[in-house]
Design a protein that fits this description.
about 140 residues; two-stranded antiparallel ribbon; alpha/beta
């Protein structure tokens, strides 16, 4: 057993990576963990609408180069919190990939204050809007 204890960022990002293993869209496996005061409030991964067929079962539903059968990890984490009556206002989120524009808007309106991500994914405009909205974006991808 290692004497090295993981710091909190590593701990929660590792959990987000594990959550991503549940993803059912092979185009991108993404996991998200919503946290407040070092306590996990909700998790989500990208997959189809609850109870409907998944991409890995019936294929992708493509529109404009994106699979629209999939609900993104961040949206699923917010939905899971809502279904369970968990308030996420003022929380932080750890995501294996930075949010798309749509998910960024959901995170902002749900009260998420800080977004940690493991790799940058596509949408640069989130940086300008995050600054304007007072949301901190933290890239944990390393040097």
């Amino acid at each position: 057993m290692s004497d090295q204890r993981a710091d909190w960022h590593t701990y929660f990002m590792n959990i987000a990576r594990q959550v991503a293993t549940r993803s059912t869209c092979d185009r991108k496996h993404v996991g998200a963990v919503i946290v407040r005061a070092k306590t996990i409030l909700s998790t989500g991964y990208n997959g189809s609408i609850r109870g409907l067929a998944h991409c890995d079962e019936v294929g992708h539903l493509m529109e404009d180069g994106h699979c629209v059968r999939t609900v993104h990890a961040e949206a699923n984490a917010i939905a899971q919190a809502a279904r369970n009556g968990v308030a996420i206002d003022g929380a932080e989120i750890y995501i294996t990939a930075s949010p798309c524009w749509g998910c960024f808007r959901l995170l902002a309106n749900s009260g998420i204050q800080r977004i940690y991500y493991g790799e940058f994914y596509r949408d640069v405009k989130i940086h300008d809007f995050a600054e304007e909205a007072g949301i901190e974006l933290v890239d944990l991808s390393g040097p």
